[in-house]
Amino acid sequence: MSSALFRTIAAVVLCVSAPALVAGCNNKPNDLAVEGHELVIAPKSTLSIYQLAGRLGMRVSYSSRTYAALSSGPVTVTVYADPNGEIHVNGRTVGSAGGIVPVGDMLFVPIAALEPVRGAVGFVKPHPVEPDRPPAVVPQPISRLVVIDPGHGGRDPGALGSGGTVEKEINLSVARMVADILVSRGMRVILTRADDRFLELNDRAAIANREGADLFVSIHADSAGSSARGFTIFVSRSASSGSTGAAEAISQQMASAGAPSRGVRNANFRVLVRTTCPAVLVELGFISNYYEARQLADAGYQRQLAEAIAAGIVSSLR
User: Which one of 35, 167, 169, 283 is the catalytic residue?
Assistant: First the structure.
């Protein structure tokens, strides 16, 4: 990812390009600042309003620093920020107040609020009536929808690596391959960008939310010191089981394909905490490493990684 200076603004770490430095994404344990991504520093054991909506099977109909609204059929959940933080389900207060904080342009709520709200939502939703007999024709299941997000693009090249490799080009090439493989295996796929164009981070996550994706996968290449190597899979802090399951499946497949692994790590990257569906971010390897840069620029190796990522996705959604 692109090398950056970090400024803390409203508890959000923003990456700012530093032209004199070599582009890079410096992986650090847990969710410390990682260069090249916008990292949202939220309190521990909290969920973003988008993650809360995903766990409740709802959509975010409004979101601001002061309150947010989630909706699904007859149910509306409203979340109000501290100092008088409350969560209402159809106008009735649920759970204890407090611990609802704005971080950047999003609200974060305690994980402990999830189950009381889930219970209240389930009470409001009408229970399905069992039919007297099964239908004569059983409808075929709809194929799963995966949103593949090639990182960077347009005026944002991402990391600039050894031998003139450009991250945005590698990201797009691998993402297209992953998409083609998934389509050939019967899945529906949306690319957040299919060519060299710039997209805001919020817009990338919004595509997955709007389309009701089953999984969001953001693809990047890493950069740090010349000796750093290997792929890394990121999920958010307080990641759902769907996110961690997808991350582990992709990691296992990539390792089986022979790529050196740095494991699955946690980081509250903006694209991960603004999606309502399970979401992972894949760092393919380090283009600051001469050997890996040459590999990542090779179409055959890109295909090898794409096959592994696609296999992990299929396995996690099976």
Answer: 283
